[in-house]
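haha ok so turns out i had the wrong file open the whole time. this is the CORRECT one, sorry everyone. sequence first:
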Amino acid sequence: MKSIITIMILASASLIAGGDVAPSPVAPIPNGSCKEERIYIENDAKLIWQDEFYTTKEEGAYKNEHSFGKAGTLAHAMRYCETLNYAGYHDWRLPTADELKHLHDKVNHPFVYNTDSDFWTSTPTAQNKYLVVFPADAQQYARSVKQSNYIRCVRCLKEETIYRGSIVVK
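then structure:
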C-alpha cells in the first residue's frame, strides 16, 4: 500500500512539474549575440563610419607598437578594414587623410567611442610614410608604416541605403 501511495505522489508531482521532474537543460547564450554595431552617418560627405569600442588589448597594442584589432601597423590597418564585416557591410576601407580630417574638423566629435590618439589613413607621403590624423585638432602627421596607430574604417553611403538617425535600415 505504501508503494502505491508513493507512486501516486510521484506521478502527481510529475504532472504538476509539467511531466518533467528533472531540470531541463538551458541553451547557452553565445557571447556577444546582442552586440550593438554602432555607426556614424556623415551625410554631407556621404560616408558611414565604424563607431566601435576600443578594448584594453587594442590600447596595449597601440602603446606597445603591436597590432591587434583596431590598432596596429599600416598593413594591419588596411587588412583589418578590407576584411571587416560590421553592421551588415563588407565593403569597409581605410579613410583618406582628407576624409578623416573633414570628420574631425567639426566642433563636436560625432563618435560614441573614441580615443585621443592618431588614426591611420590611406594617404601616402614621402619616404614610405602615411598620414595619420589626430582627432583632437584634426592635424595630419606623417608616420612610419611600422608604427602602431588606431584604426577607424569607413565606407561610402550608397544611394540605395535608407537611414533613420544613425541606424542603417536595409
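Confidence is low (pLDDT under 50) at residues 14-24, 164-170.
again sry for the mixup
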